[in-house]
Each structure stands twice: as structure tokens, then as C-alpha cells.
Amino acid sequence: MNTPNTLNNPSNPSNPNSPSNPSNPSNQQNSKGPGGVSGLAGRLDQSQPYALGLFRIVVGLLFACHGAASLFGVLGGAMGGGTVPAGTWPGWYAAVIQLGAGGLVLFGLGTRSAAFLASGSMAYAYFKVHQPESLFPLQNGGETAALFCWAFVLLVFTGPGALALDGLFRGRVGAGATARRTSEEREEQATPVTA
Questions:
Q1: Contact assessment for residue 106 and residue 99, using Cβ atoms and an 8 Å cutoff
Q2: Mean pLDDT across the chain, nearest whole number?
Q3: Segment 48-57, tens digit of pLDDT
Q4: CB-based burial of residue 27 (10 Å sphere; 0-12 exposed, 13-18 middle, 19+ buried)?
Q5: Which of 61, 49, 57, 99 is nearest to 78 (CA)?
Q6: pLDDT class for 148, splitting at 50, 70, 90?
Q7: Whole-prediction pTM value?
């Protein structure tokens, strides 16, 4: 007498390895989404704007601190203490860009434009100051310039993320335009059409 083997038959619901068995761990993984994507990936995707916003804040703050140190002698001052003499090329102009663009990126105001300017200044610093010493950043001391340059390039393409003042102002402008449009639509609906 031939009886079907219930443990090896994948279509049998009493088989613990059957895809239709709710206690099957692989079935639970497949129910989370296509390709077995867990809920963690979904939560990470939802928090991506906030992670990007925190990244922007940290990068902007660190960049602004470099400018403040060079211009005002705070936080240890410029390269061993002191300040950069006003108007000297390129140090004083770089410090002004660091403080101004860093502050704008920090608060999320004109982030893409400020990040573009900051990235360009760091590219200039790397190729004009560091790269003539040696080819690689580890050898020429240009790691900070290279990292800032690429961090700002990322912000040019991604935008400010969450927690940016640009979003706050954009929300007010958008809300005001929506309110005006809604009130105009109500007026049009309330006005009787006469022929």
C-alpha cells in the first residue's frame, strides 16, 4: 500500500515546511514583502529624510566651526591659534565661505546652492593646497577637504532632508497658495451663473 509521505509533500498543509503553514518561519519571512524584505527596511526608508537632515546638520555645523575658528580665533583658532588676516587669499575667503555656507547648510536654507559653493571651495582647497604635496589624501593631509567636498556634493543631489528651514518656508508658501486657491474655488461655486 502506497501512502503519500506527508512530511516530504510541500503542498500538504499539515507539513511543517509547507508554504501554506502559518508556523513556517520562511512563510513569515515571505509575508513581509516581496523578496522577504523585513519591516526594518521599511522603517529605515521612512526615517531616511530624518537621517539625511541630521547628516546635513552635522556637516554644516562642522564646516561652520572651521570658518569661525579661522575668522574669530574660537575653538582653537586657525592652524595653531589666531585668526586669518582679513582679505588674504585664499584663507580668509575660504573661512568666509566655510562660515556662511556651513551656517546655511546647518539650518537648511538654500541648502543645494550653499552645498554647491562649499563643495567647490573644498575641491579648490584639495587640488590647490593638498594635492601638489602628494597624490593621495592620506599622504597630503587633504582628507578633511575631500570628505567635506563629497559630503556637500551628496547634499547638492539629495537636498536638505527633514528638519530644514527651507521646508518650513515652503510649507507656508504652499499652504497660503492652497488657501487662496480654495477660497477662490468657493467663491466661484457660490456665484450663481446667469444667462
A1: no
A2: 78
A3: 999 999 999 9
A4: middle
A5: 99
A6: very high
A7: 0.66
Residues 6+ apart with CB under 8 A from 109: 164, 165, 166
Distance of CA 89 to the CA centre of its chain: 32
Find where cell 568666509 sits: 96
Q: Identity (one letter) of the amino acid at 57?
A: I
First to last CA, the chain: 90
Q: Average pLDDT, stretch 105-128?
A: 95
Using left for φ > 0, alpha for ψ between -120 and 50, and beta otherwise, residue 76 falls in: left
Which residues does 43 contact at the CB level (< 8 Å), separation at least 6? none
pLDDT at 30: 44
